[in-house]
Amino acid sequence: MRSLRTLRTTVLVTAAPLLLAVAGLIHPRHLTASTAGHWAGLHIVLLPVFPLLVLGLVVPLWGRPRRDAEGALTVVSWVGCLWFAAYYSGLDAVAGISAGTVVDHGVRGVAGPLFAVGDELGRAGVYGLAVASFATCAVLWRRHGVRVLPGAVVLFAACWSFVDSHIFWPQGVITMLGFAAAFALLTVAAARPAEARAAAVPLTNS
Fold it and tell me: Does residue 203 lie within any of the structural domains?
């Protein structure tokens, strides 16, 4: 039963990054008059998908936060996830939908400034995601120890790569696959309850 629950959770938290990786394979490399319609349309479709990337951080900490260090870290993670969802959606709207639309309609001299604003919004969003990732891994470390280390390392590498890769092939696609791998590793690491882990430690007689 626990294995089935872990499998369902893994599918849930990896669905968004895997979908974004697939989208990256068809994402135009450059915004031109011939690709503008595809560019804008793809970002419209992906607008609700990017915020779902944070499920890999929210699901492992699901539940009401306690009034302790773990609870405080959980709230920090939630705030970082919300920050990412808001600001990265701004990148999609400005540098994706808006830039694609103006180029598609032959408006000149506007796409550059839109990209500049979009890049700033995107970086701000990824920084929020990185903070949320650190907070989530800190909570999971406290609960499950070194088991979370492989997932945490892959997660931080993906966050670092995400700053300037978006989902463009090849770096962006690899970055999304990195997020999927990290979330899967963290899910498996957190699948063993802390109390079971504690019970597995032999008690010594005093």
Answer: no
Rounded Cα distance, 7 and 105, in Å: 46
Q: pLDDT of 43-78, one tens digit each?
A: 999 999 999 999 999 999 887 777 888 899 999 999
- What token pair was written down for 164? 């300037």
How far apart CA 151 and CA 205 sit, in angstroms, is: 36
6 in any annotated domain: yes
The model's pLDDT over 79-88, given as tens digits with 9 standing for 90+, comes to: 999 999 999 9
Our count of domains for the chain comes to 1
**Is the distance from CB of 51 to CB of 120 less than 8 angstroms?**
no
Residue 60 forms part of a structural domain: yes
**What are the helix (H) ranges across 47-170?**
55-58, 69-91, 99-104, 111-144, 149-162
- What is the per-residue pLDDT for 106? 84
d(CA 197, CA 206): 21
Residue 198 lies in a domain: no
Tell me the pTM.
0.88
Per-residue confidence (pLDDT) for residue 193, from 0 to 100:
65
Residue 195, pLDDT above cutoff 50: no
Nearest to 49 by CA among 111, 96, 116: 96
**What is the mean predicted confidence (pLDDT) over 129-145?**
95
Query: Cα(28)–Cα(168) distance, rounded to whole angstroms?
Result: 8
| Euclidean distance between CA atoms 75 and 1, whole angstroms | 30
> Residue 153's domain spans which residues?
2-192
